[in-house]
Amino acid sequence: MSQNPNLFLSIGKQVKDEYGRVVGKIASFALTPSGKFDAVFIEQSDGKFLKHSTEHLKFDGADATFVSRIKSETSVFCDQIPLIWRKDQALKELAEKKKISQELYEELHNNFDGVLTQLKSEAQTLIEEIDKEIARCFKETRELNYALVHLEIEHEIGKIDEQSYKTAFAAIQENLKRVNMEKSDLELTKNKLSNILLGEKPKTAEQEKSKVKEEASKEFTPTSTGPELPEPPVVVYVKEVGKSGV
Question: How much of the chain exceeds pLDDT 90, in percent?
Fold first, then answer.
């Protein structure tokens, strides 16, 4: 990334991920000796500082958006794997046309094949990581639905006033939408990477964005499609003399 003085205007401003969650705020930048932006220091809400490559950030003026490492690495694999494969195919055609010796072909083919094997192995490891993140999203969705059910119960029996109920309900719904959007994004990313490993042509960026927007537009309710909720637990309140608590 070439130096852009406007990036310094981002210092002190919030950084959000692609789903609207606040990651932290920009504290400083690290520059190379040549003056190019190399990394950004982000202060998290707990006061800790993290250093991230500027490759994981998208800037729009002073506003910054954090792009996940998974998506960045997937993009690299989806560029490199087909490129190496096409080079190897071109090499094979040159050998068939007798434009290069068989000895030279074997040497270069083995080099390309070794690079492809390494890239595919790393891509498969990334797919396994994506699977874990998708599972995390399912778990988070389930927990948020639990929270929504308990909120409804406590509101129904008059333990929560209307204004507090509406505020909490809106917050849970917003988080459910974000988690659903992230899960859909991860699934599309996994499919894209899997197709590359299978040698299939991935969907266009426009098709992927359309799919993500479609999934994110779904409104979540306790009865919406998704992980099936268990029966609400029976909550019994017991009051003991001289004690308080749940």
Answer: 55
